Amino acid sequence: MSFIHDVILNEEDICNLSREKKILNHGIENGKKLVVYGRRNSGKTSLLKNVIIPKFEKKNKSAFVIFCDFMEVKDIDSIALRLRVSFEKAFMKAFPKETFVKQIKNFLVGLRPQITVDPLTGETSLSITAEKAGQEVSLESIFEILGKKIATKMNVLIVLDEFQDISFVPEAQGLFRDALQKMGKIPVVIMGSKKHLLAKMFAVPDAPFADFGVDIEFNDIPYEEYHAYCQERLSKKGIKLSLENSTIWQNLMCRNAEAMNILGAYILENFSNKNINELDLRKSIESIISERGSRYEEYIGHLLTSEQEVLIAIAKYGPVLEPSSKEFIKNLKSAHATILKAVRNLENHSYIEKTMQGYQLVNPMLKYYLLKNR
Ligand SMILES: Nc1ncnc2c1ncn2[C@@H]1O[C@H](COP(=O)(O)OP(=O)(O)OP(=O)(O)O)[C@@H](O)[C@H]1O
Ligand SMILES: [Mg+2]
């Protein structure tokens, strides 16, 4: 057992989330539409991919699970492409190779399916194409096949990750609304990490998905639970940690589970037979940010100067309750409107997030890096 980061977690490394697991399993069993909210790195993708979906597949002999991630989609074609690829993968997973050709004939008429065999590995793969050459298979036709053909014979589950990013593509919301409305009793899980965008799609009265589904919010891991998780992992090297210091650990990492795990991995690697105190925690963070420095430079290198300025100011003065307040703006050179635009862009691309305490950096390690180097 260790502290895992940068990848999705197996069930035994997921801390907390048993309530969320129960609600999701129950909702899926009952053909519900579920909307999962949760800040970055709260374990949404891990729970779905490595716990909920495998359970669904085990329970239903004829499971057909489509998992599609819409992170940073740019236009309707890129949305359709992601859906098509997810559909092809789902199809290959759902049917054994022996029955493949037959199932393709059963289910995919009209989608011009092609099977190719990889010359190196011998693995077969499926690709479907639109009627008109050069065009993407439409979103509507994929949902139609799912709803009208596949769901009549199979237990379908649809999981759409980082769904809020389709809101940057004007025509996408209407298309999805129509398609999802036709899914009847097929369970659908919609997930997102940018709450301000998801709320605009689901939680205001005239929003496109205003009456859609049941909300499930992934909250911060309770301090005691993560403390127990740490103790379990640290004890194998004789490292001790009090609840008080564990709370400091979690607060220093702004309760971001991935950052907490990065710190854990560092401590597990660099200490043994010791009581960890606050100074150890702070020194470890300092080493981590100096090791990962070039990564953070690259990360902010994509931003406009005004966005960098705002990000650095939020790192310094945050959490910031009101970015348009005089008190915050007086720290900056950019004009008022430019600042607000920068805040919006930073939030849309998950550099910052709004919490109860105000706007803060999503990545606490980046915050410490900026505090030290800017
Ligand atoms: N419940 C948890 N217990 C332990 N670690 C977690 C938990 N949730 C998230 N993490 C940490 O965050 C990382 C990312 O997890 P995951 O991708 O499942 O989260 P997510 O909510 O889907 O994030 P994102 O919003 O970025 O898509 C993991 O590698 C792990 O380090
Ligand atoms: Mg995710």
Q: Explain this structure to me?
A:
The protein is an alpha/beta fold and 374 residues long. The protein folds into 3 domains: 17-218, 3-Layer(aba) Sandwich (Rossmann fold), CATH 3.40.50.300; 223-291; 303-373, Arc Repressor Mutant, subunit A, CATH 1.10.10. The protein has 16 helices and 9 strands. A 5-stranded parallel sheet has the order 2-5-6-1-7, with helices on both faces. A two-stranded antiparallel sheet has the order 3-4. It has a two-stranded antiparallel ribbon with strand order 8-9. Helix 11 (278-291) packs across helix 16 (364-373) and helix 13 packs across helix 15 (336-348). The protein is globular. Bound molecules: adenosine-5'-triphosphate (ATP) and magnesium ion. Residues 4-9, 14-17, 38, 40-46, 193, 221, 257-258, 261 line the site of adenosine-5'-triphosphate.
Strands of the largest sheet, in order across it? 2-5-6-1-7
Bound molecule types: adenosine-5'-triphosphate, magnesium ion
Strand content: 5-15%
CATH architecture of the largest domain: 3-Layer(aba) Sandwich
Weakly predicted, low-confidence segments:
none
- Which structural class do you get from the secondary structure elements? alpha/beta
What is the overall shape? Answer: globular
Distance between the termini: 37 Å
CATH homologous superfamily heading of the largest domain: P-loop containing nucleotide triphosphate hydrolases
**Range of helix content:** 40-55%
Q: Strand tally, please? A: 9
CATH fold-level topology of the largest domain: Rossmann fold
> What count of domains describes the coordinates?
3
Question: What integer value in Å does the Rg equal?
Answer: 23 Å
Number of helices: 16
**H-E order:** HEHEHHEEHEHEHEHHHHHHHHEEH
Q: Report the top-level CATH class of the largest domain.
A: Alpha Beta
**Rounded mean pLDDT score:** 93
